[in-house]
Amino acid sequence: MKSEFKVYDICEFSLDRQQDIIVSRFAVYLKNLKKLHFPHRHDFYHMILFTEGGGGFSIDFQNFKVQPYRMYFMAPGQVHGWDFEGDMDGYVINFSAQFFQSFLLKSDYLDQFYFLNGIAGDSVIDIVEEQRTSIINILENAVKEMEKQYRFKTDAIRVWILQLFLQIGNMNVRNEAHAADSYNMTLLRNFEKLIEKNYLNLRLPKQYAELLFITPNHLNALCNGTLGKSAGDLIRNRIALEAKRMLINFSLTVTEVAYALNFEDNSYFCKFFKKQTGVSPDGFRKHIHKDTD
User: Fold this and answer.
1) pLDDT-based confidence at 121, cuts 50/70/90?
2) pLDDT tens digits along 229-281
3) Alpha-helix runs per DSSP H in the chain
4) Which of 71, 94, 102, 118 is closest to 12 using CA atoms?
């Protein structure tokens, strides 16, 4: 089995090895890439809008088809792979986690965009026909700014990217029926953020409900009504996802993964993982190994 799991830094995708922002047409980007190891992680935000090509891609072990005007967004740390078919084109944007920090007064400004939340199911968006021209124009302008050399180039690129986020955010792709209930949507997003920060130590819905100043029953009703999953399911799913991300690093033993995820008993971790995923940790590794040969 492979003994290492590649984590890519944004500089590895940059021609001058120094940039913390890359905006390019996708065909040009692919041509300049050296062979990538799949699956892999990024330590930066990564997004692609496809305009041509086929095949598929995966985000955190969920598979999606490539099709024109399908866009995906990835947050740092997510696991990624692709298997393209035919001539690929579109647009790609990579930016570091620090790229907007000095530009925006609110350090958590990007958190309001659901497609940047690191949840695979929320991060793949089909651009509707009436939005395509304006989104392509935004991306074309960002590409042109990338090719220029002047004082405010980087800030101009930031503005175009933010305009892209605002337009996609206003499409209300996620749960349109619930979008009007801003209070509950805010609660749900805060719950998701708390899970992201605390899943290693907090495993019970009542612990999160206490942090949100609501009852466990309210939290469960919110999750079931909006996502069709219980609060406990969301917590367990996040733990299982991190287990998958760690298990594809074959240099770690299953026991080391279990302890890193705060399971004191290796057998309990194996039972938990199989219940959540349907396969044992070793079975999952064999499947990944077969797919990457």
Assistant:
1) confident
2) 999 999 999 999 999 999 988 889 999 999 999 998 999 999 999 999 999 99
3) 26-32, 129-147, 153-169, 182-198, 205-212, 216-227, 231-247, 254-260, 266-277, 281-292
4) 94
Average pLDDT value for residue range 126-130 = 94
| Cα 96 from Cα 13, distance rounded (Å) | 12
What are the residue boundaries of the structural domains of the chain, listed by start? Answer: 7-169, 181-292
Identify the CATH class of 181-292.
Answer: mainly alpha
Q: Output the pTM of the full model.
A: 0.82
Q: Domain spanning 7-169: which CATH class is it, in words? A: mainly beta
* Tokens describing residue 147: 């090719």
Residue 244: closest CA among 274, 193, 272, 284: 284
> Is the Cβ–Cβ distance between 13 and 94 less than 8 Å?
yes
Q: pLDDT per residue over 145-181, tens digit each?
A: 998 888 899 999 999 999 999 999 888 544 444 444 6
Residues with Cβ within 8 Å of 244's Cβ and at least 6 positions away in sequence, in order, are: 60, 61, 79, 277, 284
Nearest 5°: the CA angle 250, 254, 260 is 100
CB 58 within 8 A of CB 291: no
Alpha carbon distance 173, 119 (integer Å): 14
Burial 168-185 (b: 16+ CB within 10 A, else e): beebebbeeebeeeeeeb
